[in-house]
C-alpha cells in the first residue's frame, strides 16, 4: 500500500508541473519512475461573455461573477455565485472568451447545492467562436482528433474538476440534464506554457508589423510544449518540415533552446534510415538544413558531431535518388506544402531545389567535420543537381525555393511569379521562403507589403496566433473568429479549408506560420549571424519604415540595435553588443 501511495504522489508531482527533485523519503525507485514537467501553469479568468442561451436572468444568473478574479478556493458560505438553472424545456449554456489563444484546459469550481450529486456539463473548446459553438462532424468537420474539445464531464458538489488539454480561446458550457441548479464560483482556463524570456524583440514605425512579429513569436512559444509541436490543437506532433520556420523563430526570439535539439533527436531516433522522417523525403532534408542553421547561429560543434554518422548515411541515401539526367527521383511522401501537393511540376521543382540546398549544406558540414573528401563528394552532387532545370512550375512556393537554390534568377522569379496577383495563392508555411526569395531579389518594400496584407489579414479577422493555412480570397464577406458569424457572412474557420484542414479541424495556432518574426529581425533589423555565431553583420533594410529597433539573442548575450532614417534618406545605426561578440557594419 505504501509503495502504491508513493507512486501516485510521484505521478501527481509530475502532473502538477513541479520541477524540483522529489523528497528523499520517496525512495530511489519512485524517483527513477518520475518524469518532471518543464511546463508552467497559471489560471486565467475569462475576459468576456460572448453568448448566453438566455438573457432574461431566469436560467443564467450573475454571469458577470465569472469575470472576476478569484482565489481558487471554495467555501461553505459562498453566495452570489453564477447560477445555471435547467428545466425540461431549457438547458442553459454560456460562451466564454479568454482573450487570447492558449494551450491547456479548464478548472471548474462548484459551490453548495441542495442535491449533492455531481452535475453533468458539456464543454466545447474552440479556437474560434464558431468552433466552440459547433457540433462534432458535419460539413464543418469539427473533431475530437488529437485533443478532446467536445465532451461531457461531471462536476462535484462543493468541489473542483480540471479537464482538457488542447489549443483554445473560447469555451462553451451547457447543462445536460433537466431540473438542475448549478452554482459555479469560477471557470478558469488552466494555461500551460513554457516560462521562458523573450530575448529577441522588434519595434518599428509600423505598429502592424510589430504586432505581426510578436504574434509569430507567441505562436511558436505555445507550441514549445514537451517537444516542439506543429500545433497545440492538432496535430501536437513533431513534424520536421514544420520545425524549420519554428526553429528560425526560436533562434530569433528565445536563442539556443534545448527543445530544438530534443525534438530533432526524437525525429532521428523515431525514423532510422532508410526511413524518411515523418515518411516524407523533404522532411529528412529539412532535418539536415535545421542542423546547419542551428550550428550557424550557435556554434555547438559537440552537438553537430553527434549527428555525424546519421547525417553521412542520409546524404548517401539522398544521392541514390538522382537519375542519369541529374533529376531528383525521391520516393516516400513527395511533399512541400498542401497547396502544391497536387501539382507534380511544383513538387519536383521544390524537391530539386531542396536537394541542391541540402547537398550544399552537407558539403559545408563535412568541412566542419574536417572530412575534405566528403566535402568534395557532396559538393559535386550539388553541382550535378544544378544541371537539371525544372520546368513548368508556376507556384510561388516552388519558385521561391528555386530562387534560394540559385536554380533561377531571384529578381526574375520575384517579378514573374512571386509578385503576381499579390498575396493570392500563398501558404503560411512556405510564406517564409517567399519572403526570403523576395529579400534575395532586393524587394524589401514588396516583402513588407506581403507581411502586412497576408499575415495582417489574419489579425484583421481576430487572430492572436497564426494559422495552419490562410487564403486571402476567403476573406471576402467573412466574419471574425472572435464573434458569432452573421447569417449573411461566411465563417472564416468553419466554411473553408482543404486537405487536412477542412473546417474547424483547421489549426489556428501553427508554428510553421511564424516566418515573418525571423524575417523581420534578419532583414529589417539587418541582423545576419556569421561564423557559427561569433560575428553579427548589421545590414538594415528599412524599406518604407521611418525607424526600427530591437534585440537579438546571440551566443554571447543579447544584442540591441536601433536604426533611424535621416532626412537625406541615409540610415543612422546604433547598437549595444555583449562582450565577446564581433559586430561589423
UniProtKB/TrEMBL annotation:
Protein name stated in the entry: Alpha-L-rhamnosidase six-hairpin glycosidase domain-containing protein
Segments forming domain Alpha-L-rhamnosidase six-hairpin glycosidase: 199-524
Domain of life, per lineage: Bacteria
Keyword Membrane included in the entry's annotation: no
Gene3D superfamilies found in the cross-reference section: 1.50.10.10, Maltose phosphorylase, domain 3
Keyword tags: Signal
Signal peptide annotation: 1-20
PANTHER family per record: ALPHA-L-RHAMNOSIDASE C-TERMINAL DOMAIN-CONTAINING PROTEIN, C, PUTATIVE (AFU_ORTHOLOGUE AFUA_3G02880)-RELATED
Amino acid at each position: 500500500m505504501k509503495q502504491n501511495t508513493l507512486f501516485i504522489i510521484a505521478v501527481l508531482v509530475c502532473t502538477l508541473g513541479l520541477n524540483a527533485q522529489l523528497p528523499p523519503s520517496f525512495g530511489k525507485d519512485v524517483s527513477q519512475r518520475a518524469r518532471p514537467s518543464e511546463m508552467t501553469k497559471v489560471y486565467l479568468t475569462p475576459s468576456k461573455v460572448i453568448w448566453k442561451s438566455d438573457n432574461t436572468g431566469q436560467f443564467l444568473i450573475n454571469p458577470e461573477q465569472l469575470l472576476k478574479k478569484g482565489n481558487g478556493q471554495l467555501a461553505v458560505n459562498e453566495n452570489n455565485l453564477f447560477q445555471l438553472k435547467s428545466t425540461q424545456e431549457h438547458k442553459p449554456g454560456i460562451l466564454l472568451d479568454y482573450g487570447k489563444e492558449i494551450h491547456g484546459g479548464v478548472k471548474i469550481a462548484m459551490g453548495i447545492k441542495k442535491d449533492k450529486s455531481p452535475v453533468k456539463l458539456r464543454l466545447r473548446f474552440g479556437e474560434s467562436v464558431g468552433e466552440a459553438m459547433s457540433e462534432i462532424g458535419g460539413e464543418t468537420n469539427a473533431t475530437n482528433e488529437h485533443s478532446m474539445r467536445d465532451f461531457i464531464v461531471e462536476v462535484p458538489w462543493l468541489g473542483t474538476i480540471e479537464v482538457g488539454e488542447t489549443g483554445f480561446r473560447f469555451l462553451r458550457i451547457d447543462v445536460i440534464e433537466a431540473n438542475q441548479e448549478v452554482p459555479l464560483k469560477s471557470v478558469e482556463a488552466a494555461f500551460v506554457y513554457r516560462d521562458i524570456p523573450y530575448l529577441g524583440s522588434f519595434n518599428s514605425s509600423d505598429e502592424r508589423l510589430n504586432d505581426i512579429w510578436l504574434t509569430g513569436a507567441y505562436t511558436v512559444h505555445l507550441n514549445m510544449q514537451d517537444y516542439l509541436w506543429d500545433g497545440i490543437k492538432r496535430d501536437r506532433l513533431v513534424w520536421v518540415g514544420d520545425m524549420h520556420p519554428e526553429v528560425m523563430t526560436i533562434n530569433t526570439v528565445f536563442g539556443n533552446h534545448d527543445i530544438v535539439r530534443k525534438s530533432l533527436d526524437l525525429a532521428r531516433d523515431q525514423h532510422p534510415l532508410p526511413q524518411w522522417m515523418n515518411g516524407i523525403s523533404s522532411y529528412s532534408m529539412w532535418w539536415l538544413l535545421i542542423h546547419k542553421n542551428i550550428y550557424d547561429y550557435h556554434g555547438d560543434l559537440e552537438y553537430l558531431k553527434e549527428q555525424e554518422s546519421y547525417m553521412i548515411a542520409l546524404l548517401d541515401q539522398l544521392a541514390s535518388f538522382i537519375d542519369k539526367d541529374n533529376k531528383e527521383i525521391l520516393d516516400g511522401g513527395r511533399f512541400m506544402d498542401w497547396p502544391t501537393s497536387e501539382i507534380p511540376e511544383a513538387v519536383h521543382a521544390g524537391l530539386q531545389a531542396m536537394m541542391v540546398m541540402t547537398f550544399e549544406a552537407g558539403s559545408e558540414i563535412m568541412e566542419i567535420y574536417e572530412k575534405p573528401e566528403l566535402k568534395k563528394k557532396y559538393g559535386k552532387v550539388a553541382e550535378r543537381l544544378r544541371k537539371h532545370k525544372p520546368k513548368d512550375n508556376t507556384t510561388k512556393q516552388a519558385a521561391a525555393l528555386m530562387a534560394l537554390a540559385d536554380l533561377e534568377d531571384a529578381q526574375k522569379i520575384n517579378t514573374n511569379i512571386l509578385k503576381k496577383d499579390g498575396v493570392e495563392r500563398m501558404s503560411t508555411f512556405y510564406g517564409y521562403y517567399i519572403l526570403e526569395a523576395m529579400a534575395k531579389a532586393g524587394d524589401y518594400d514588396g516583402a513588407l507589403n506581403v507581411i502586412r496584407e497576408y499575415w495582417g489579414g489574419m489579425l484583421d479577422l481576430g487572430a492572436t496566433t497564426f494559422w495552419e493555412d490562410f487564403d486571402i480570397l476567403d476573406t471576402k464577406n467573412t466574419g471574425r473568429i472572435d464573434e458569432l458569424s452573421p447569417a449573411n457572412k461566411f465563417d472564416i474557420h468553419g466554411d473553408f479549408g482543404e486537405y487536412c484542414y477542412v473546417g474547424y479541424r483547421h489549426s489556428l495556432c501553427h508554428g510553421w506560420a511564424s516566418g515573418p518574426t525571423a524575417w523581420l529581425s534578419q532583414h529589417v533589423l539587418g541582423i545576419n549571424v556569421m561564423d557559427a555565431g561569433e560575428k553579427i553583420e548589421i545590414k538594415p533594410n528599412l524599406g518604407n519604415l521611418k525607424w526600427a529597433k530591437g534585440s537579438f539573442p546571440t551566443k554571447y548575450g543579447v544584442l540591441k540595435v536601433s536604426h533611424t532614417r535621416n532626412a537625406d534618406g541615409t540610415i543612422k545605426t546604433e547598437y549595444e553588443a555583449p562582450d565577446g561578440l564581433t559586430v561589423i557594419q
